[in-house]
């Protein structure tokens, strides 16, 4: 009997057990009469990695809770729209002027000023590590009068407004920034929800901020619990112990009421990064052998139960223009220049990944089988992300399996490519520094937004793929759970928005 016939009954047992364990983990959903007195409970995938520092990936939690805000936000198309800045203009090729919104106060009562906004942006440039959105960008900011900020870059940058939309460039009150470089977001944001309590890696509590400059929140607050285990998150939705659940594993979806599950393509690619600096994959022909060993359809069917899209490149269906541009003859020529695969009988490699996304360990098992069928001898190292990220960035693995958001920061994929594949990239797991790739990235980065930039972006993708430093496997989908008693939750492919001012909670039907 195939193993798949056992999977769902076992999952159902695990789901019941997880539900029992979770009963005491979540705040009990409020079933009040409405009118802004209810609270929304959220089960999130990953706990904070950097104490909720806005300069780290934790900033996306602050954004999804609508407690910290940026000068600019992105609309569904990825275009820049006002937030804490109401308008902006280009003063010269290297300088932009942003006019601040009047009447903005932080949660501690202090007012937003141009001097402070400039100070925060300058702090971000010297943070360690710096926000990914600033990889390869020399940015400085200064106040221009009382209500405007001038942002300058060392070279002309058409994406400055989009860069300032990154949650890692959120503005917090002056008191949030300590002399030792630490940043405390609790009680120091500007959004409709005030972060009132941080329970380390177990959860957080937020209350409505009545002094918010925009539309006031319709719920009284947010109760967050971090639940890395995917079965437990699904159980939280099924049992009603959470109103909103992040990242439901595909294997759990058949066990849930389909009316509670919402799925959209997202700009996130499951990619196998190969170490180009040392070890077996320093040889391009050995990297080619790994590429040829991969059966993407088997990964999608096995680990994701068909709820993902096979990858033809780094960018997936969430960016529909990417597929059409792969028909460019120059794109095909770049890929045709790849070397022939080497014979790899008995070549040992280490494969790393993390447990926080439940599909990755299963994908790694399938990858191990495919690579070993091609002649590699695979040793896996699987840990929680917080305990493996530093080793991955240091190049400790021959191969690393990562679920990577491709437009997370600016709404533009060039920033992600520069971070992951540029010579000075802050997230360069492949340890890649190839002149052709660097030139393509710089050309794309310097091109104005629009069709020309998209074409240059795809040429950069082709240059990366030609090195086999990264093997794109599949494109994930957002699988988000929402209880029947919650409404107005954001379904954001870029994972910036979740609970909004318009989110409401009512009694269970």
UniProtKB/TrEMBL annotation:
Show where the Solute-binding protein family domain sits. Answer: 81-426
Please give the organism: Pseudonocardia parietis
**Classification via Gene3D superfamilies:** Dipeptide-binding Protein, Domain 3 (3.10.105.10), Periplasmic binding protein-like II (3.40.190.10)
What's the protein called, per UniProt? Peptide/nickel transport system substrate-binding protein
Query: NADP as a keyword?
Result: no
Please name the Pfam families in this protein's record: SBP_bac_5
Highest taxon, organism lineage: Bacteria
Q: What are the alphabetically sorted keywords of the record?
A: Signal
Per the UniProt entry, the signal peptide is 1-27
Query: Is-annotated flag, keyword Signal?
Result: yes
